[in-house]
Structure formats: structure tokens, C-alpha cells
């Protein structure tokens, strides 16, 4: 099993920035890709960004140019730098690792003035 723990969420004003972190433990050697998903109230969980072990990245159109995903080479952490945050970015953000998939417990991000 793989355990994932997120941190870094919080309340930020529109236009602000946050950096989310996800720490992986357990059978990390099985991890191929890691990513971030989010779920807003009343909506389905959606992909925000993911990154493969080779460093290839994929972003949702709604966050391109504003968010940056990165990971360490040891499969122990993945990060999401979020800039120019908008109210519509408000959601619970979940860390994900595949194969599995494995999920973290989520961290709340609220963008509001």
C-alpha cells in the first residue's frame, strides 16, 4: 500500500498563491505517476494536473499557465504551485498516485475575499 498525506491548503484572496505538498510513504517504488485532483461542492472530482515518473506533465485547461506540478525523484513527494487563484479554484484538493489508485485525505483550498 501507498499512503499519501497532503498539506498546504487554506484561505487565500483572489489573485493569491498557495503551494500544496503531498508526501508519499509505504510501497513508493510502485508509483508511476502522481497528481492532484479537486472536488468542489456538488461537482465531480476532476483532474487538476499529473506528472509521470519521467517528468511528463498534464494540466486541466482551467489551470494551464497558473498552476505548476512538480515531484521529487525519489517518488516521495509531489507539489502543486498555484498562482493567480480564482474563486472557482475553491475545492478540496486530493493527492493521487498510480497504479492503484491511491488517494490522500484531501486539503481544503478556499479562494475568497
Helix content: under 10%
Instruction: Give the termini separation.
Output: 40 Å
Shape: globular
Number of strands: 11
Biggest sheet overview: 7 strands, mixed
Average pLDDT works out at 94
Order of helices and strands: EEEEEEEEEEE
The poorly predicted ranges are: none
- How many distinct helices? 0
Radius of gyration equals 13 Å
Approximate strand percentage: over 45%
Structural class: mainly beta
Report what the structure shows.
There is one protein chain. The chain is mostly beta strands and 113 residues long. It is 0% helix and 54% strand.
Describe the secondary-structure layout.
Elements: E1 2-7, E2 10-12, E3 18-26, E4 33-39, E5 46-52, E6 57-59, E7 67-71, E8 77-82, E9 91-98, E10 102-103, E11 107-111
Parallel strand pairs: 2-11
Antiparallel strand pairs: 1-3, 3-8, 4-5, 4-9, 5-6, 7-8, 9-10, 9-11
Question: TL;DR of this structure?
Answer:
The protein is mainly β and 113 residues long.
Keywords:
single chain; 113 residues; mainly beta; seven-stranded mixed sheet; four-stranded antiparallel sheet; 11 strands; 0% helix; globular
Amino acid at each position: 500500500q501507498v499512503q499519501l498525506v497532503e498539506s498546504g491548503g487554506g484561505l487565500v484572496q483572489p489573485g493569491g498563491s498557495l503551494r500544496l505538498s503531498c508526501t508519499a510513504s509505504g510501497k513508493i517504488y510502485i508509483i508511476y505517476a502522481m497528481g492532484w485532483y479537486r472536488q468542489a461542492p456538488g461537482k465531480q472530482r476532476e483532474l487538476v494536473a499529473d506528472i509521470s515518473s519521467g517528468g511528463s506533465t498534464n494540466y486541466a485547461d482551467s489551470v494551464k499557465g497558473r498552476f505548476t506540478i512538480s515531484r521529487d525523484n525519489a517518488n516521495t513527494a509531489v507539489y502543486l504551485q498555484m498562482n493567480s487563484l480564482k474563486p472557482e479554484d475553491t475545492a478540496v484538493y486530493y493527492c493521487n498516485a498510480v497504479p492503484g489508485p491511491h488517494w490522500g485525505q484531501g486539503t481544503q483550498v478556499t479562494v475568497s475575499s
